[in-house]
Amino acid sequence: MAADSTIHCDIVSAEGEIFSGPAKMVFVPAAQGEIGIAPRHAPLLTMIKSGEVRVQLPDGQEQFFFVGGGTLEIQPKKVTVLADTAVRAKDMDEAAAVEAKQRAEEALKGNIDKIEQAEALAELARAAAQLKMIQKLRKIKG
Amino acid sequence: MPGTKEIRTKIASVKSTQKITKAMEMVAASKMRRAQDRMRLSRPYAEKIRIVIGHLNKANPDYRHPFLVEREPKSIGIIVVSSDRGLCGALNTNVFKSTLMLMREWQGKGAKVNLCLLGNKGVAFFRRLGLPILASIGGLGDRPHVKDLLGSVKVMLDAYREGTIDRLFIVNAQFVNTMTQKPVVTQLLPVETSDAGDLQEHWDYIYEPNAAEIIDGVLMRYIESQVYRSAVESVACEMAARMVAMKAASDNAGKLIGDLQLVYNKARQAAITKELAEIVGGAAAV
Fold first, then answer.
1. Which among A10, B13, B41, B231 has the fewest CB atoms less than 10 Å away?
2. What is the pLDDT of residues B206-216, one digit of tens each?
3. CATH 2.60.15.10 for domain A3-89
4. Nearest-neighbour CA in chain B from A32: distance (Å)
């Protein structure tokens, strides 16, 4: 296959490489709707929503990957999906930050007690985000 | 000369200690292998995101992100990555030492120091110094997850945005090889950019929805991935250091047992000789 009819696709997360290889076309759930990326696409930088990344291999087969959000970079010959490992929600990040701060204060005082409210809040947000993902998964499967 | 019974008990106690250190050595060895694998797995992401940032720097958005702008350092932040548990040689001590050196250097320039501590040992050590600790997290375990680190990193990034700190460093142990781990200091903020490599022309990305938001997201993830990589590397170092320390302990226990066995044999022989002499002396008297 000629070199310019495929595009190199890398999907990586902080905890490991997920996919790397040539593709005919890549479909990514970008922040403003799903986009399909063919070779020689214009350079683009955008955020990804949580959802499904579809990679069409040169032999016509398709591979599916679920990402919980992240960043997408497109160069004419290369697509890079920087996937987030953690399912993130803005309020969840906030709760985690509060927790870390409080833990520091507790550590300074000398008693390392668990901050249960913040922990429960973070747990709740995490569970809600995961629930959403599961529902999405079901919708696509069903 | 001590009694033979005491020496026997001592030998038994050293032997059981040796059993423990040997077990710890083997556990650390297998955990080290897994930690090294994780370290390798985190590399592609870090490389890719660094390339993207290199591209970003070459592109010309009309917006300069605060993370890329150098400021007068009036106050600095240091993220210290240490282990949760001890018995790993001088690993943590070395990290703390280079942290203190970094602190002294900046305090000499009149900058204030704020800390962010990852790992229980760091919390225990730096609590006594009475410096402001902005965030801390302990009990990350052998497999630190990105999501466990996000909170602490966010606190430091917010502090940077608000101007509480003007520069952010991370100190962690670097895995050179199984025998050698050395502490390294890396500057996280402002981001030191490298060259982009293969792109020469004047160009820019299309940003969706807008440049500021995306660049912010990319840079935040870059810092997070750096902190994650440091945490994973620190675990690999901890395991390697523990393996080496426990090997030395096992060897020392073996030597100690040998010496004690010698003393024990001598004591036993002396006791027998004494008994014989008494019998012979008694027989002669009769």
1. B13
2. 887 788 888 88
3. yes
4. 7
